[in-house]
Amino acid sequence: MNKAGPATERVMSRMTPAILRFRSRFLKQLVLKQRAFKQWGAIREDLARYLLIAALVGACAAAFAYVAGWLSPGRLSADRIVDALEAHDGKHPGFRRAHAKGLCFSGTFDSNGQGGELSRASVFQPGRYPLIGRFSTGGGMPQAPDGRVVFHAVGLSFSLPHGELWRAALDDVPIFPVATPQAFFDFQRATAPDPATGKPDAARIAAYLAVHPETRAFNQWLKDNPVPSSFANGTYYSINAFRFTDAEGVQHFVRWSLVPEAAFEALDKSTLSTLDKNYLFGEVIGRIQQGPQRWHLLLSVAEPGDTIDNATVQWPASRRAIDAGTLTIDHASLEDDGACRDITFDPLVLPAGIGPSDDPLLSARSAAYSSSLTRRSGEPAQPSALAQEHAAGEKQQ
Predict the structure, then answer these.
(1) Does the predicted TM-score (pTM) go above 0.85?
(2) Domain termination site, one of 42, 75, 108
(3) In total, how many domains does the chain have?
(4) C-alpha to C-alpha distance for 218 and 241, rounded to whole angstroms
(5) Can you tell me the distance from the alpha carbon of 144 to that of 160, in angstroms, rounded to the nearest whole number?
(6) Residue 155: helix, strand or coil by DSSP?
(7) Of residues 88, 92, 99, 152, which has the active-site annotation?
(8) In the chain, fewer beta carbons within 10 Å around the N or the C end?
(9) What are 141-154's pLDDT values in tens digits?
(10) What's the domain range around 51?
């Protein structure tokens, strides 16, 4: 083997430190590049996750915008329905856009267990369940007089085991004036006051009624039937049908009603205008102060062929009805600071064992109630008609 001479060894000895320095710099750069590649890989993974999240958020936002009607201005949205209510009865900040005049109450529901035949919902198991509710009159004017031919209503919120709620809204008429959200919107617009005269346009109303016999039937029902003299002696109806599921998984379509224990009495329609402005609310407050008011919860069961998706069609009175228990109201309070003030009596807040039918009004009511709550929650609270009357009475004393 040849050996390097002294000259070569001297050259190599001078080059070795330079090679070592180059090798060190090269290795450092290599490590830095490897770290950069790893960091970029992590960044790419994070970026992919962020893009996926952004896409999901964007999809949700798009869905929300679609439901709200922002992507299709001509589509009937909940906000457009509430806009129509405001155009009909005026905008009254701090109040509900429908059933604006009301009174809170509280009480209990004593279930006798009979409703368990139709539904596995906990509310139909034997027991006592607390509830909060609200009496109201129809329309969006919080200062409207009670002496009108207008339906009375009750909203209920049952507190059930395991944090479940059941909310319901019932009227004292067994049918509704319209069958679809679009018809409701058209009805509000047709009967809204003309800005030029302050009164509804007769020709516009006639044109609407010409193509909506169901609304004509509702108006005729109001004309032909008496007006209850009290919130406490009227029968209230769910109007919409709901899908009950029993413990075996069998489904039943049901409408419910509240039948009072108080004897029915009617107001004289010819003298309604002479009643005190807050007559109905003052009357029921007095009744409750004298003693609890009670109703029986009846569950009416549909038979094959009955209409279950149209609130304008009444079921025959011969349908089987189950008395599921007794609802008792023992306390009333002004809604200005009452427990019902911020509750929306959303008909789609349902416990397990009760579901909606295919009635299109249910989802529309739910969405419109939510829109109304959002609006009034952002507005300054105004005193109710009952609070104003109470304050005026105190000043006179």
Answers:
(1) no
(2) 75
(3) 2
(4) 18
(5) 35
(6) strand
(7) 99
(8) N
(9) 999 999 999 999 99
(10) 7-75
